Description:
Blueprint: H1 16-24, H2 28-41, H3 45-56
Helix pairs in contact: 1-2
Amino acid sequence: MKKLYRSTLDRKITGLAGGIGDWLGVDATIVRIVLIASGVFSFGTTLLLYVIASILVPKAPFEVIPPPPPNGSYRYFG
Length: 78
């Protein structure tokens, strides 16, 4: 079973939407759109739940950053 963590790489505010996106296997942008729409239609209840979840859900212990592409694919201007 996969654990829910706040993302340290895909974050805009607290990383909760990025963590939920990783946990569900969907893009974090979709999670953010759903959270915003839900916040509008729930008169702020979703915002309260977001703040509570951001406090309770732990940060990811580590995230592997993919390696950069080989040296030949970078262009340096300067």
